[in-house]
Structure formats: C-alpha cells, structure tokens
Amino acid sequence: MIAKASTQLVYVIDDDASMRQAISRLLHAIGLTVRTFGSAREFLSTRLPDLPACLVLDVRLPGLSGLDLQREMVERGIHVPVIFITGHGDIPMSVQAMKAGAVEFLTKPFRDQDLLDAVRSGIHRDREGRKERTEVAALREGLSQLTQRERQVMALVVAGLLNKQIALRLGTSEKTVKIHRSQVMRKMRADSLAELVRMSQKLGI
Amino acid sequence: MNEIDDTDLQLNHLVDDERGTARHKTSWQAQDELEQRVNERTSQLSAIKTILDSVSDNFFVLDKEGRFIYFNEHAAEQMRSLGRDPDALIGKVSWEEFPDMPNKEDVMSVLSDRVVIVDESYYAPLEEWVENRMYPSKDGGLVVFQRYITQRKRTEEELRQTQAELAHVTRVSTLGELTASIAHEVNQPLGAIVTNGHACLCLLSRNNPEVKEVREAVECMIADGIRASEVIKRIRRLLKKSKGGKSSYSINNIIREVLALTAGELNKNGVNVRTELTQGLPCVIADRVRIQQVVLNLILNSKEAMSGVGWQPRELLIRSEQAEPGVLVTVTDTGVGIPPENREQVFDPFVTSKEGGLGLGLSISRTIIESHGGRLWTTLGHKETTFQFTLPTGENL
C-alpha cells in the first residue's frame, strides 16, 4: 500500500486506554487517520494540523471533562466538530452537549455504523465550516478596504434603496453615490446586487 | 483461741492425773469433749454442705488421680440426669467414666501444671454449653465449678448474627452509592470489546485481511473481557455474606482491591489518590470482607468530606506500615474535617453529617476492627483529617 498524505483527521480523546485504542483501530480499519489523546489537556496543548477533522470525545474525563473541553474549544476558537461518547449518558447531559453544537451523542457500547456516520458527518461539517470561514475571512478583508463613506453606501444599497434615495439620505449627488457603489462592488468582488446582499448577510451587517 | 483452750484442757488433765482422781472421770470427760467436737465438726460440715448444695453451679472435686471425691447436689443431679448414680461414681476416674468428656485435656493440665483453667465447651449428652472453672486444690487434686452458659452463648450468637446482618446491609447500601461508577467500570471494557469486534469485521472484510491486526484486536477483546469480569468478581466478593471466618491476608491487597472498586467514583469526584503501601508487611489475620468494608467506608467518607471543599485540592492518602504490634493503616483526606467536639461522637451509631446517611458506617467499622483485636481512631491535623486502624498480624497472635 502506498502511504498518502492524509486529507482528513479524527481526534480521539478517552482516558480509558483500551477504549481509545479500540476506536482508533476501528477508524483506522476504514482508512481514516486517527490521533489519540488521554486527556483534554493533552489535546489542548497539541498544535492541530490545518486539515478537516472531527473529535471523538469521552464525556467523562479526569481533570477537564468532555463538556468542559467543548466550552473551552469554543472560547479558544477551535472549530473541530465534536462527537460525544459516554458510558452513561443522561438526558440533561446530552441536551447540553447538543445545544453546544455537538454532532452526535453516542452511548457506549455503540454500533460501528453510528460512529462512522457521525465521524463522516463531523468531517463534512468541518469541511463546510472551513470553507465558510475562509469565505467570511475574504469578505472581511474586502470590507476592511472600504472607506467610511463606501460602507454607508453599501449598507443603504443592500437595504434596497435607489441611488437617488441614497444621495438624498447622505446629502450628496447621485453621481457620487454611483462612484462609491462601483468601488464597493469592486472591493467586495461582487458581480451583482444579489451577491452583495448575500455577502452582507454572511458578514452580519 | 482454740489452741489455748486445748492447752488448758490438757493442763487440767495433768492436774487431775496428779491429784490422782479417778481415771474414769477423765475418760468420761474426754469422751464428752470428743463428742462435742464431732458434733461441732459435723455441723460445720453440714453448713459447708448446705452452702455447696445451695450454689447453683455444679461443684465437683477430683483427687490427684482424677477420681471423683465429691459432688454437690447440683452436680449429683447432673449425674443422675445422665443416668449415672453419683454415689457409685465416687472413687472412679472421671475421664474413664466419661470418655466423651470434652475438656479432658484441660483437667489433666490443671492436675499436672497446677494452673487455673477456665474453659467453655459444648457437651452433647446434656445439650448444653458449659463453662468450667477449674482450680488446683492443695491436696494435689482439683475443684471444678461448672455453669451452664447455653443461654449466654445463644445471646452472643444472636448478637453476632445481628451484627453480621447489619454489617452486610450497610455494606450493600455502601456499594449502592457506587452503582453508577461500577456500571461505568463494567461498561468501559464492554464498549471496547464491541468496538474492537466491529474493527475485526472491518479488517476481515478487506480483500487481504491483515491477520496481525485482527489478532491484536482479539487479544484486546480477551483482556477487556477479563477486566470486566474482574470488576464483577470484586463486587460479588464484597456482597457475599461473611461467614465470620478469619484467614491470613495481605493488607495491601485488601486495600488495592477496594481502591480498584472505588477508582471510578474517586476519579469522578476529582479526588487525587496517593498510596504509600509498605512492602513485605506480615499478613493480617482477618475476615477479608469485613476489613474491606472498613477500608471502603473510610475511603467513601473521605470522598464525601472532600466534596464540600470547592476548588481546594482533594487529596486522599492511604498508607500501610508496620506497627507495634501488628500493622497500621492510615487514611488521610483534605476534606472539611470533623469539629473537635464531635471527634468521638462520629463513632456513635446514627451520627451522620451526610444527607440520607444512616450514620452506621464508622460505628460498624469500629466494631469490626475491635472484633479483630485492633483499634480505630481519628486525629485532626491542620488541614487534613486522619483515620487510622491497627490489626494484629499472624506474628503476634
């Protein structure tokens, strides 16, 4: 078999060595690259490669628990989707995990298909998320290049106002508004008004 | 006084003789005195007999050859109830007449070593437990005070059984506290087994299955299966009713087994466990289940005491070491501690600081340790609470 650079990763955190190894073995058997950790701290202190990934996380861990880690990851801006596994899942716990954005909440022992489905959907979600984040980062870059005036124009354009109305609102000429508008479209790399509206929605303006 | 009187009498005789008075009078007088003394002696003996017959114990006297020489009325009555004639037994060797005598060796020891022996034995023909207090007598024989103690034995047995039941019930309820952790501990290897099983199927469904990988997975499954069954075994051993028998055990193994059972629970509560178990300690003579119950109790109490300390460190230290005499086990925690005025009260039954607690743990623990001939006590440090107990070892029994 020719070793190829992995294009996706699964992280597994479980303090129980034999469970950790078993999950790793299963994921490995279907061709996934796995990295295992014995504790949340160990995971947090590792520099993660820039690849689509998901995290299989035991709820009950010594020290920082799985739910604590999920919270910590949000605070640190670590976006890896989480699949929880637990020996004794109670409902409040699973509700908390799902509300905080977990992909899945599996109770041990789980069916392999359930784990594999969750892992696939987790990696898919991360891939989408990364795409989205790259896009948003590009939009922010464009936005940061707009002047104060151009931002005002953009806001009014996407609000559906006509150039004439905008000119009136800003106390300037329609011609000037047109110039600002074309600058906005260029800097934001928007081909149409519809696209600019979509972009502004993404940026939360 | 009597001796002086006797001398006086003798002097009188001499004086009478010297005076040449009739010998007849002297012998008449002497006979009279003799009679008087016989009467006195008889009434003395009769008083002693009355006293001995009034004693509710059976009273036997044996000579130095082990022959019966006296029975009080109760003892005679006992002989009759055994179908024997007490008068006919006088002069007969006790162990020849009663070959099934359960304490023959003790009787012989009293005769040969001239020591006091108190023994307890069950005598089947009487269907009674008897206690014999045997004292060597000055003439080389021995006297026996024998008392029926069947009722006392029965009460003791009932008490022992009740205590055993109580200990069992509290043990079961203590284990109840651990249910969640124990379930987790069984489920963990089961989860790994199932996952490894799935992995095996995946590996086997490949075109060229990697036998080595499959073998590794199967080996892990076996190890995890054993691990799960060990947990179950530990619980069953602790749930089993103690038969009260004592054997020789390593105190460190007893401690380790309880720690294995509580590891999950301690972990869940963020308790850091440290052990300092001295190697090569002599074995303790103990009822294993009971001593495990004590250790379990102390550990869970510590855990409970530390659940109220917020973010302060939760440290549990368990130490075993040689003591004079026996072994000493120390359980120290950094919990909320015990108010000094309650230091002794914690060992009283129904005293508890736990919500929903029975308050029996420490009182039963102390009973258990004391029934092993050890001691259980508590000391308060600056920031920690310590419980310690000693147990005798095979060496100093």
Would you write up a description of this structure?
With 205 residues, chain A is an alpha/beta fold. Chain A has two domains: 9-134, Rossmann fold (3-Layer(aba) Sandwich), CATH 3.40.50.2300; 145-203, Arc Repressor Mutant, subunit A (Orthogonal Bundle). Helix content of chain A is 56%, strand content 12%. A five-stranded parallel beta sheet of chain A has the order 2-1-3-4-5, with helices on both faces. In chain A, helix 6 crosses helix 8, helix 6 (148-158) crosses helix 9 (193-203) and helix 7 (163-170) packs across helix 8. Chain A is elongated. Chain A starts with 8 loop residues before the first strand and ends with a helix. The mean pLDDT of chain A is 90. Chain B has 397 residues and is α+β, with helices and mostly antiparallel strands. Chain B has three domains: 1-47; 55-148, PAS domain (Beta-Lactamase), CATH 3.30.450; 159-396, Heat Shock Protein 90, CATH 3.30.565. Helices cover 52% and strands 18% of the residues of chain B. Chain B has helices at residues 2-19, 23-54, 73-81, 86-89, 94-97, 104-113, 150-177, 179-204, 211-239, 251-268, 288-306, 361-371, and strands at 58-62, 68-71, 117-123, 128-136, 142-148, 247-249, 272-277, 284-286, 315-322, 327-333, 376-380, 385-391. In chain B, strands 2-1-5-4-3 form a five-stranded antiparallel beta sheet, sandwiched between helices. Chain B has a five-stranded mixed beta sheet with strand order 7-9-10-12-11. Chain B has a two-stranded antiparallel ribbon with strand order 6-8. In chain B, helix 8 packs antiparallel against helix 9 (211-239). The longest helix of chain B has 32 residues, at 23-54. Chain B is elongated and about 130 Å long. Mean pLDDT of chain B is 84; it is low at 1-11. The interface between A and B is medium-sized, with 23 and 28 residues.
